[in-house]
Amino acid sequence: MIIAVDGPTASGKGTIAKALAAHFGLPHLDTGLLYRAVGRQVFLDGGDPDNGGDALAGCAFPDTLLNDPQLRDEETGGLASRVSVHPPVRQALFDRQRKFAEQAGGAVLDGRDIGTVIAPEAEAKLFVTASVEARAQRRFLEMRERGAGVTLLEIQDDLRRRDERDRSRAVAPLVPAEDAMVIDTSALDRDEAISAAIEAVKQAT
Ligand code: C5P
């Protein structure tokens, strides 16, 4: 069973994907981490994330980079969003994601194009979303806990910019698959969102 979980930044899709993996006993891949590693590698190489050649070179990142705590930073998220518009970068990461999806027994993958491009055959497809305000508020609290000095407004602006870039790119834009079940988490707490997702998967399979 493949479960595809797509949605914008800070929608709760990562939390939901992890919980689904635990509930159904499946391995989980956070595909955003792969794009973040590419963005981080380009930065470490002194390259330009908007340059397709530099971005493709970043795809040769070492596996150890996936454990770098800086991958979770907002800054790296922005770099990831910039490198992810280049089709050769998406192609380079395609095989890696497919291989994970094809594991015996199944997998949960979360990202932006899992249900549309990476695993269109997935048995269950969720599109997790929430208002910009709700997502910014969550990200703000998370960042404050980590001691980061950013304002709510800065986070909202950054989310809007990233949403726009992810939705408008020519290749694999962020759109729900036609057969995806949409879960709006704006008014749900963590447990409610997880329950809704488990129910949706049960219904689909
Ligand atoms: O999900 P996360 O915020 O970690 O993703 C970082 C960026 O990587 C996203 O803003 C998006 O541009 C890109 N991404 C993507 N396709 C995916 C996962 C992430 O384009 N499957």
From TrEMBL:
Cross-referenced Gene3D superfamilies: P-loop containing nucleotide triphosphate hydrolases
Protein name, UniProt field: Cytidylate kinase
Family: Belongs to the cytidylate kinase family. Type 1 subfamily.
EC annotation from Swiss-Prot or TrEMBL: 2.7.4.25
Known catalytic reactions: dCMP + ATP = dCDP + ADP; CMP + ATP = CDP + ADP
Annotated compartments: Cytoplasm
Enzyme class: transferase
Binding site for ATP: G7, P8, T9, A10, S11, G12, K13, G14, T15
UniProtKB keywords: ATP-binding, Cytoplasm, Kinase, Nucleotide-binding, Transferase
